[in-house]
Design brief:
DEAD-box ATP-dependent RNA helicase RhpA, Rossmann fold, alpha/beta, 17 helices, EC 3.6.4.13, 439 residues, 7-stranded parallel beta sheet, 6-stranded parallel beta sheet, nucleic acid binding, Helicase_ATP-bd
């Protein structure tokens, strides 16, 4: 099967050739014909399966064909709602790539930046609008956006939308778009709340599920390191200074934890930046671009800020802290091993995270191989005690026989930057991420 077999119009075929696309992914192969027929669709697909093209390509074709028939001026005919700024921008880039020869226009609206340039684009008229929920509703209320003539509605990353507290915003959006429309619904997982939402907004939908919800790509080499909490920084630096790690996306549970990891890496000569909800839009995009261009080796992120990150040939994903929601593990490691490339997923597990590990292995249906031969192996299944001095600056203590003496200055500092998260750090940053991501 090639894209030539999907009955795509010449302008899109030409754009796909420019992009180097020849063979559609499974979700593209199955979803594109369904969407072109005008049918509602539920797509259950994990990160990295090519689902953006699965809806962007047929939307561009449908709107291009309608424009030829009607010869009408630009108006918002397709609305794509997605939870984060980064994902909205990437979807916009996809529409630019696939639609470069169609003459269709699009724009992206999201919070965290001035709305001035966004409203200018809207005043000029657009065919396709990609938006995060908060800014979309703000601009609707200000009369910059009229959704009464929408033909196609896409709800992307529905499960993350629910996690981030956008369910009420989504319902408000649905209430103001036409009831007669084509609806495309995409979600990596289908918990009961998402199934209920889908059933309320779709009409006789086709269902495409190309990957089991709990599976992890076979091409991803997973490994597990048991390590005391106080030694995680040392283990991370030990791995990042090895020859095999060319780029690493590192996950922490909190924004505070992400910033702390970056400070430790920078002090020890590993170029790193953090992305999370407290960073400005320009800072987040700048860090992402520098990571993609290999100007920095490590990008440290919280789950919500990282949703939608698409990086070619990412060599490693490192779970500095295991997620407390097992499905999140699948989403995280799915950012490596894309497009046929090999990928490594490394997870650290301290004594307090053993329960999280058990849930993850139950979900994926197998045990993650354990690496025992490393200098920071956990000394005890009990929670780590006070952080031991020694090792790299602010890092932790290697096991017996591999310790170096710390300097008097280091002992006086007490390795403040190497300790675990402070008591004041929030256990879950979803609330603040939601406020800063889209408003």
């Amino acid at each position: 099967m090639s894209f030539k077999n999907l009955n795509l119009i010449e302008p899109i075929q030409r754009a796909l050739v420019t992009e180097g696309y020849t063979i559609p992914t499974p979700i593209q192969e199955q979803a594109i014909p369904i969407v072109l027929q005008g049918q509602d669709l539920i797509g259950c697909a994990q990160t990295g399966t090519g689902k953006t093209a699965a809806f962007a390509i047929p939307i561009l074709q449908i709107l291009h064909e309608k424009r030829k028939l009607r010869n009408e001026p630009s108006r918002i005919k397709a609305l794509i709602v997605t939870p984060t700024r980064e994902l909205a921008i990437q979807i916009g880039e996809s529409f630019s790539s696939y639609g470069r020869h169609t003459g269709l226009t699009h724009t992206v609206v999201f919070g965290g930046v001035s709305q001035y340039q966004q409203t200018l684009a809207l005043k000029r008229g657009v065919d396709i609008l990609i938006a995060t929920p908060g800014r979309l509703l703000d601009l609707v209320n200000q009369k910059f956006i009229n959704l009464r003539q929408i033909d196609i509605f896409v709800l992307d990353e529905a499960d993350r939308m629910l996690d981030m507290g956008f369910i009420h915003d989504v319902k408000r959006i649905i209430a103001i778009i036409p009831k007669e429309r084509q609806t495309l619904f995409f979600s990596a997982t289908m918990p009961p709340a998402i199934t209920k939402l889908a059933s309320s907004i779709l009409t006789d939908p086709a269902r495409v599920e190309v990957t089991p919800q709990a599976s992890t790509a076979d091409i991803i080499d997973q490994s597990l390191y048991y390590v005391d909490k106080g030694s995680k920084n040392g283990l991370l630096l030990h791995l990042l200074t090895g020859e095999n790690v060319t780029s690493a996306l590192i996950f922490t549970r909190t924004k505070h934890g992400a910033d702390k990891v970056v400070r430790i890496l920078d002090k020890n000569g590993v170029t790193a930046e953090a992305i999370h909800g407290n960073k400005s839009q320009n800072a987040r995009q700048g860090a992402l671009e520098r990571f993609k261009n290999r100007k920095i080796k490590a990008l440290v992120a919280t789950d919500i800020a990282a949703r939608g990150i698409d990086i070619d040939e990412l060599s490693h994903v490192i779970n500095f802290e295991l997620p407390n929601v097992p499905e999140t593990y699948v989403h995280r490691i799915g950012r490596t091993g894309r497009a046929g490339h090999e990928g490594q997923a490394i997870s650290f597990c301290d004594a307090e995270e053993r329960a999280f590990l058990k849930d993850i292995e139950k979900l994926i249906g197998k045990s993650i191989p354990v690496v025992k031969d490393h200098p920071y192996a956990s000394s005890s299944p009990a929670p780590a005690a006070a952080f031991a001095r020694g090792g790299f600056r602010g890092i932790g203590k290697p096991r017996a026989g591999e310790e170096r003496r710390s300097s008097p200055d280091e002992r006086r500092r007490g390795h403040q930057d190497g300790r675990g998260p402070s008591r004041s750090s929030r256990p879950d940053d979803r609330g603040s991420e939601r406020r800063s991501s889209n408003r």
